[in-house]
Design goal:
11 strands; transferase; 6 helices; Protein kinase domain-containing protein, cytoplasmic; signal; 32% helix; Transferase(Phosphotransferase), domain 1; elongated; 5-stranded antiparallel β-sheet; non-membrane spanning protein tyrosine kinase activity; Hepatocyte Growth Factor
Length: 246
């Protein structure tokens, strides 16, 4: 969410009515999240001026660990230097820390492609935004889910009940510090996650939603503390159910 919001902001800066705007003091502390969108807190250090040049060798974009040769345009300006400077700063201050983590395994190769392409400045802001929107579409639609056996068949569903919220086993990247609360596309994906976690014996799809509209699933290690709830369904591993009866 943070990276996508940042890319949308940089897309606007690259195509602003004033021309391509560069953030001269590009640091994480210069941004803040407001209602799920990233905002610049200080616009004193911005510029629409692009570096003047006579030939291509005048257009080297230098960073502490990398340098990029750019083209000198016919009007004597380094082509796209403001856009590329913003984008590489986004890569080194945000993408490298946020993109490799917490995405579903099937989506990680797409995010790695974005990371590598922006790190080498092979993507401009237009291509970067398009790539992020593709990942978002796959994530929201569930199209990233690989075809597999129907794992939900291994579960008993108890309609009209939910689990009492309590501290339980932890998982990454949980939305709750008390237990394992993860974003899922639906019950089938939740069953796959539960099967992959040795502690998990049951789960429930909660009424909570993430910024993409996906529901949160709460995973539990025991079957105790069920309470009536007409709008809820508890999914219990059949093996766990048999062991409880024994």
């Amino acid at each position: 969410q943070i990276c996508l919001s940042l890319v949308k902001l940089l897309f606007y800066l690259a195509h602003s009515p004033l021309g391509s705007i560069v953030l001269l003091d590009f640091q994480p502390r210069q941004f803040v999240m407001v209602d799920g969108n990233l905002k610049v807190t200080d616009i004193d250090d911005v510029s629409t001026e692009e570096l003047s040049c006579k030939e291509d060798k005048d257009c080297t974009l230098d960073f502490p660990t990398k340098s990029f040769p750019l083209k000198c345009s016919a009007v004597g300006k380094c082509e796209g230097i403001n856009e590329k400077k913003n984008l590489f700063n986004a890569y080194r201050y945000f993408f490298t820390y946020l993109l490799p983590h917490s995405a579903p395994p099937a989506l990680r190769p797409f995010l790695s492609d974005i990371l590598n392409a922006t790190g080498d400045l092979r993507y401009g802001i237009n291509e970067t935004l398009k790539a992020f929107e593709k990942v978002l579409h796959l994530y929201k639609s569930g199209l990233y889910l690989q075809k597999r056996p129907l794992l939900l068949e291994d579960y008993i569903s108890l309609k009209g009940f939910r689990m009492v919220e309590r501290e339980d086993y932890k998982c990454w990247p949980s939305y709750s510090h008390l237990g394992c609360l993860l974003s899922v596309h639906g019950a089938e994906e939740a069953a796959a996650i539960c099967n992959s976690q040795m502690q998990c014996q049951s789960f429930i799809i909660t009424q909570q939603r993430t910024w993409t509209g996906r529901p949160l699933a709460s995973f539990q290690s025991s079957l105790t503390d069920l309470i009536p709830d007409t709008s809820a369904v508890v999914y219990i591993k059949r093996l766990a159910s048999s062991e409880e009866r024994l």
